[in-house]
Design goal:
With 64 residues, the protein is mostly helical. The protein has three helices and no strands.
Amino acid sequence: MNELIQHLLVALCLMLIIEGILPFLYPQRWRNLVVRLAQISNRNMRALGLASMLLGLFLLLLVR
């Protein structure tokens, strides 16, 4: 159980690092992207989220 928690924390840390790269390097472009994302309908946002999760799952299966 302890090892599982450690792996989850490592994954969370890596996600935060990756998520922070674009706002750090290109803050204005990131802000413009967030404004555009706010204009996307809930249905399209859900589809984008599902596609992202499925891609992540597929890549995880390939790596593991």
